[in-house]
Every structure is written in structure tokens, then in C-alpha cells.
Amino acid sequence: MSAERCHVFYCRSRAEKKAKLRLEMDGFKVFLPISKELRQWSDRKKWVELPLFSGYLFVYCQPHQLFTVVGYPGVVAPVKLAGEFACIGERDIEAIERFLATGLSVEVVQGVFDLGTQVEVMGGPLKGMTGHWLAEAGQDYFFIEVESINHRIRVQVKKELLRAKKG
Length: 167
What we know:
Number of strands: 14
Number of domains: 2
Oligomer: single chain
Structural class: alpha+beta
CATH topology of the largest domain: Alpha-Beta Plaits
Number of helices: 3
Helix content: 10-25%
CATH architecture of the largest domain: 2-Layer Sandwich
Largest sheet: 6 strands, antiparallel
CATH class of the largest domain: Alpha Beta
Strand order of the largest sheet: 9-13-12-11-10-14
């Protein structure tokens, strides 16, 4: 019997939370990173919780359960990458959780851009993490890649807290 892995699924827009609850009720372990965002309405401001990766859900399951998961309302299909069903590694999950735990403003960037210098964070809440450095529009960012869905998570970090990683 093969081991459970965290598989990546496409979800209908704004159905991620309900799909997560339904899957968990049936015993699946689900990872749905949530970020808080301050939204402005005409009469008030309100903090809302939104999926960090809109349209994606991460479900721990065995390969033979992939299409069982797709049978749940809101779940569209398993993500394929290079002909294989996409999985997200535990290291990526831990990094995402750590980014969210800092309370810093985290931004998800989709698509491909040139990788910057590989760096290590030397201070602050992300101390010890390794990733890449990117200077964009006069701002310095530290980011990690989530290759299984072709997204990057970036956070603004002072350049003084970054050190080029050797080797």
C-alpha cells in the first residue's frame, strides 16, 4: 500500500472552505492556508479570511483516492504537473505555515520570473529560512517557491537581514 501524500486539487472559486469542511468530516486531512485581509466596504472595514492560494486545496490521500476527492462538492480536479499528479512537500507546507504565523503581509505571485540570489534570513520572525531574494520596484522581497502549483510566496524583508547562501 502506498503512503499518503498531500495532493493538490483545483477547487471552484470561493468553495475551498466548504470543500475542506466536507472532506474533514469524512476523515481526510486537508491543508488550506488562510490569510487575513482588511477589506473596505462603503460603510465599514472588515478583516476577512481568504485562502492564500485561491482555487487550490491540498488533501492528504493515497493515489487511488484522488477521484473520490474529486467527487466532493467544490473540488474540480487533481492538479497535474509534467504528466504526474501534483503533490506538495511537507517542507513547503511548514514554510507556508511559518510565513503565515509571522503576521507579516504575505503576497502570492503566480507564474514565472527570474530567480534571484539564494539567500538565508539572518534575523526576525523568518530567521533561518532559505529562499530567494528579488528586488522589484525599489523593494526587497524574500520568497519561497511552491513548485507544485507554480506560485511563489513573497514577503518584504529588509535587505540587511538577508545573507547570500553558500553552496
